[in-house]
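[step 3/7] inverse_fold.run input=structure_tokens len=177
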């Protein structure tokens, strides 16, 4: 029950953390998507680029869209320096796969004996989100059979703090004594 009290006490902090994570996720996705689009744009033009360092720098600067980040430009210059521009298609594809992994959504199931209020649901949502970098898809359901408490499933992990489970443990303990 201590974990639930901590969860309730952290409401204000958790909501702020959740808001920060939402903004951070949005920023991250925009930066990744923008970089990926810019890479896709320049790849066909640079994959066969040849020449000395100065020639390659001019070719890179000529094809970069206005507003391209300095980080991407420098990355392309490093590839040019390392004679790796011919690998740009593979690099772009791998970068795209990393970006797709970043949008992973973790399924979370919360079971309670009674319907939770919107405030309780938000507290639980914030607490779970604070412990996971990925986006979460949280579903709340009611199962009177658990008698009280909560069962929280996050992926393969289960936190069973239901009264039914606690009573079963007491019963098994009494039977084994």
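[step 3/7] decode complete -> sequence:
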């Amino acid at each position: 029950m201590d974990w639930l009290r901590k969860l309730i006490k952290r409401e204000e902090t958790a909501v702020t953390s959740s808001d920060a994570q939402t903004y951070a996720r949005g920023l991250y996705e925009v930066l990744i998507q923008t970089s990926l689009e810019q890479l896709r744009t320049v790849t066909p033009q640079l994959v066969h680029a040849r020449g000395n360092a100065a020639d390659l720098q001019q070719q890179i600067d000529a094809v970069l869209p206005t507003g391209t980040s300095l980080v991407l430009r420098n990355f392309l210059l490093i590839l040019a320096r390392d004679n790796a521009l011919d690998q740009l298609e593979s690099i772009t594809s791998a970068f795209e796969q990393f970006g797709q992994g970043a949008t992973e959504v973790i399924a979370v199931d919360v079971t309670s004996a009674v319907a939770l209020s919107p405030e309780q649901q938000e507290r639980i949502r914030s607490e779970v989100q604070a412990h996971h970098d990925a986006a979460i898809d949280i579903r709340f359901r009611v199962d009177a059979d658990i008698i009280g408490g909560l069962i929280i499933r996050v992926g393969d992990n289960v936190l069973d703090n239901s009264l039914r489970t606690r009573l079963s443990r007491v019963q098994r303990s009494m039977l084994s004594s």
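[step 4/7] annotate
The chain has two domains: 26-101, 105-176.
Residues 6-16 have pLDDT under 50 and may be disordered.
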